[in-house]
Amino acid sequence: MSSNRFTSRRERLLRLKTLREGRTTAPSRIDAPALFEQCPNCNKACSKKQWNTQLLVCPHCGFHRPVSAYLRLSMLLDPDTFEELNDSLKSTNPLDFEGYPQKLEQLRRTTGLKEAVVTAKGRIGGFPCVVAVMDSRFLMGSMGVAVGEKIARAAQTARKAKLPLIIFCASGGARMQEGILSLMQMAKTAAAITHFQEQGGLYISYLTHPTTGGVTASFASLGDITLAEPEALIGFAGPRVIEQTIGQTLPEGFQRSEYLLEHGFVDAVIPRSAMRDTLIQLLKLHSKGGGRRG
């Protein structure tokens, strides 16, 4: 049963159905007033239909556009299995940071999100699991108190239910408006994930563009299996900051998924088209006796 008891199951499923159909009422829709939209990477024109059928991957160059949290979940979860967790959790303004409450309210209106991460229970290929998806549209997916708490609670839910945990990371790091309280979430999320793993839980970390800062330095790097989307920027500090600090030119593709794969930081680079099938295979391999749980 969902932690958000005031939202009916039908309403939650309708939210995902709306996203699949691309209706304009969807909070995470792609705004494309024209019939064609230029790829930000290769500058070639793609129709809206091409973007949608290709899961927001450019058919010309393979560029992976950012995916909103609910849309990612609709791509991933089996139909009628989405069950949102801790939907009511959202950031306040613990440090009385000027303009922060107004910024949060603006983002909640424009994105349809309450925070930079959505957590849910569901099934992928019939296998039950807990999934968290970060959304870079909400303050660059930065981790404040509410984000850290939702990640920690997702790990606790997975531990108690003995389910695999999958987190799609996309973040600019810690949220500066919450200061030291934001940095504390690094320890909290890492501890929750570690406790989950010590109890035998499977944690799959899926890194998307960009995954940086305190998120990289905490739960994003703790996966039993670490996957990444093509060309995702993954690291603590950005390349320009590193170059300015050490006074050296970095290798080509430094901190991109493929470079990190070559150097053992991630286990595989998985394009979005293979995302769901890959996760189904991993869940099957790690389930008891190779069968479906639940």
Would you write up a description of this structure?
This protein has 294 residues and is of the alpha/beta class. Helix content is 36%, strand content 16%. The chain is built from 10 helices and 9 strands. It has helices at 9-21, 48-53, 69-76, 100-111, 145-161, 179-198, 213-216, 239-246, 257-262, 275-286; strands spanning 36-38, 45-47, 83-85, 117-124, 127-134, 165-171, 203-211, 225-228, 268-269. The strands form 2 sheets. The chain has a 7-stranded mixed beta sheet with strand order 3-4-5-6-7-8-9, sandwiched between helices. Strands 1-2 form a two-stranded antiparallel ribbon. Helix 6 (179-198) links the parallel strand 6 and strand 7. Helix 1 packs across helix 3 and helix 5 packs parallel to helix 6. Mean pLDDT is 88; it is low at 1-8, 20-32 and 290-294. It comes from Candidatus Allofournierella pullistercoris. It is found in: Cytoplasm. Its main location: cytoplasm.
Please specify the SSE layout and strand pairing:
Elements: H1 9-21, E1 36-38, E2 45-47, H2 48-53, H3 69-76, E3 83-85, H4 100-111, E4 117-124, E5 127-134, H5 145-161, E6 165-171, H6 179-198, E7 203-211, H7 213-216, E8 225-228, H8 239-246, H9 257-262, E9 268-269, H10 275-286
Parallel strand pairs: 5-6, 6-7, 7-8, 8-9
Antiparallel strand pairs: 1-2, 3-4, 4-5
Helix pairs in contact: 1-3, 5-6
